[in-house]
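BUG: 3D viewer hangs when loading the predicted structure for this chain

Environment: internal workstation, default settings.
Expected: structure renders.
Actual: progress bar stalls at 90%.

Input used:
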Amino acid sequence: MQRKFPHLCQPVTIGRVTFRNRMFSAPMGGTDITNDGCIGPKSTAFYELRAKGGAGAVTVSECMVHPETDGSHAYHLDTSILNSLASFTYTADAIRRHGAIPSIELSHSGMYSGTYMTDKSRQHGLAQWGPSACIRPDGVEVGELTHQMIDDIVAAYGRVAGLAKRAGFEMIMVHGGHGWLINQFLSPWFNHRHDEYGGTLENRCRFARRVLESVRAAVGPGFPIEFRMSGSELFEGGYTLEDGVKIAQQLEDCIDLLHVSAGTYQRGFGDTHPSMFKPHGCNVYLAAEIKKHVSIPVATIGGLNDPAQMEEILASGKADVIYMARALLADPFLPGKVMANHEEDIIHCLRCFTCMAERAATSTRRCTVNPLIGRELEGDVLYPAPVKKKVLVAGGGPGGLYAAYTAARRGHQVILCEKDGELGGILRSEQALPFKYEMYQLAGTYEKLARDAGVQIRLNTPVTADYVEQEAPDALIIAVGSAPLIPPIPGIDGKNVVVVNRYYLEKGKVTDDVVVMGGGLAGCECAIHLGMEGKHVHLVEMRDQLAPDANVRHRPLLLREVEKYVQVHTGYRVLKILPQGVLCEDKDGNQLLVPGTSMICALGQRSRTDLVESLWDTAPFVRVIGDAARVSTITNAVYWGYHAALDI
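Structure tokens produced before the viewer hung:
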């Protein structure tokens, strides 16, 4: 078979283990972690899906090796805990039986113990230990690890590695990056010791070296040991890429695969997990440089989801292995599609952080574009419907498209009607924002999948009660979306005003001096884009804070971009739109003119309830999804659409 991406599809041998391809699933934490640190069945299914999807390796994250000094609510592999070894064994087996190599990440949070607790206040009641005594920025006191504690932690790495091997894991990843304990020893920012573990770079590497030697003694020769490190900490006072090269050289004789990531969670979350505001592969240069100076295979990671880009990285010698995390939530079957030359069917990650925000908020997982994520135990195989029915979907946005695709895969006769001449719904407006272009492309991917599944798509076809009566479907899914909220502000119908949903059609009307009215997610993202284009942008918001509708992971990165490009006015109520700007009233009742010759109206959306009500009694089965039911997120639209189709 002629592979379109031969380097990605090529097997690789690390230690004495051969991996079926070079697309590896990066460590991602589970959700149903038991109180005593066992892997719950939902998490086992979560990891298994990536193995089914064709990844070469699937890494379970994070197993904390020494709960006596790290009270994080994470995995703990310990024979004194009932069902601990069994839960890890079942998970390793679930991965291996699909041809992927099960790997496990061994870690210690150090001075950030308790990071994974849903109740963050409990962190302050934990004993925090790091390489050096200090007071954390949040006021938590950190104690310096004693030599005895260090010896105990080193031994624990080996003990847990041996148990992981017994459980069926075939590779150990030692986490030495991202600001956790090993990274804290490596870093001059965190490590201020004056003994054999501090000072020189060789001394700062001593703890990592001892850990790796302990793991090797436990697993034996030929068993792959991977070391995950930050190629650079990417902040002033941390170690640089030049230091990263030296660290890699100090440790390479202890490891079989060097996994080069970037930054620290605590000081650069958006570096470690590149946001939509950064180019894909922005951290690859770190791995590429370090690879020049070591003789072992090197893996890279960081917002990668395009097979062509990943193929080039391998073909040009920048890395030997590609790791993906979020990309394999969006599409767990990405590796299998690459292997089968079906890359056009890949559903791409949007880098919207829904997955990570949901874990922080509710200790579960969701993915905007993949309704299976976090619910894998409910089943990832679609079974044919026992009775084939005629299904009409009203609306061609993301929820409607996914509902139609799902219903067609179950064998139903599916017709999707869209009132406009193009599919995508509200996603169409994203094509004008380069950092959200993948969100616009999502509609095209869903459309292809729907058409391939047999969905009949009718454009320029509004669905009315008469139309439903004429078609006589057995089931109607109403996905008619929402409409822009345009309040009766004097001047809002002027030629100098562009509604944010129509910006992609009318961007030529927008001058270099812009006032964006509305500081929600849509308004902030549009303002950032305009600022990136070099325009002078004012953002007016009636509330005291911006983007409360953004998720907890995306919002801080969004606000950082707003700060770069936009002049913000919170607590301002719009009174009138004038040719020379927007007349506003502040919280004290003062009237002020925010200057600008173009205005963007981003004041929210409202459900098309009148249309929904007119269709409610037109078919035996009716389901309302997405913004038509409640103005919300793409995540909900896709999830509700998927389950509406399963219910028919």
